[in-house]
Amino acid sequence: MFYWVMKRLLIAPLVKILFRPWVKGLENIPTSGGAILASNHLSVSDSIFLPVEVDRPVVFLAKSEYFTGQGLKGKITAAFFRLTNQLPMDRSGGPASAKSLGAGEKALLDGKLLGIYPEGTRSPDGKLYRGKLGVAKLALSTGVPVIPVAMIGTDKVQPIGKTVPNIRRVGMIIGEPLDFSRYAGLEDDRYVQRSVTDEIMYAIMRLSGQEYADLYAASVKNQRQTPPEATDGGASGPE
User: Which H or E element spans position 86?
Assistant: First the structure.
């Protein structure tokens, strides 16, 4: 409730004045009931711009590291993510990740809008990367529609590593809902999960116009952060 009031009275007016966001396809978001907003991820600011344009409250799954930072900056970041209606998502796999997805599943079954970034992390270079299976697991286990979303230009507003955003216009395109009811009863089939995830990523790619890379963004980031001497003589390229 606090975030809803803050959004209406402070965040939304400020964002609209400074960044003049444009949006297409708002009519594709249902007025009631659970639904997944599956978006590309170019900037930490993505979780601000999209909810501002959507009349209904949006709950986001955000990586758990945002909630456990140390020092003043870490505490401010954690407070920001809690205040902006976000749930910590553990990406380590196993029971921890399953528990995080369980929180998202409950939100959907309660009739809420759940925002998720299938890539799992921000794109390191503006490309669209391979989606992780969590979005498919949620869609298949709850039966809710998946609405693909493309954020446009948010990486120019707040590139990775930049704290103070640049003031410039951003946009978003909201696609038609994707229905995966044809896979009812197959929610535990990993081939089905991969097929659903790839279909979602293809829809996002068509909306965003991004170049697609069939790699995990986290793997690319880790490869780029690894010193050459720690690899095979520095000769191997990104995964």
Answer: strand 86-89
Alpha-carbon gap, residue 167 to 145, rounded angstroms: 34
Query: What's the gap between Cα 159 and its chain centre?
Result: 16
- For residue 23, which of 129, 175, 145, 147 has the smallest C-alpha distance? 175
Query: Rounded distance, CA 57 to CA 32, Å?
Result: 11
Q: How far apart are CA 97 and CA 125, in angstroms?
A: 26
**pTM of the full predicted structure?**
0.83
Q: Over the stretch 151-201, which tens digit does the pLDDT of each residue have?
A: 999 999 988 777 788 999 999 999 999 999 999 999 999 999 999 999 999
Q: According to DSSP H, which parts of the chain are helical?
A: 2-6, 12-19, 46-53, 71-83, 94-109, 134-142, 154-157, 190-208, 217-225
Q: Are 161 and 225 in contact (CB under 8 A)?
A: no
Nearest to 37 by CA among 128, 97, 112, 115: 115
**Taking the chain, what is the end-to-end CA distance rounded to the nearest angstrom?**
43
The most confident of the ranges 13-17, 40-44, 189-193 is: 189-193
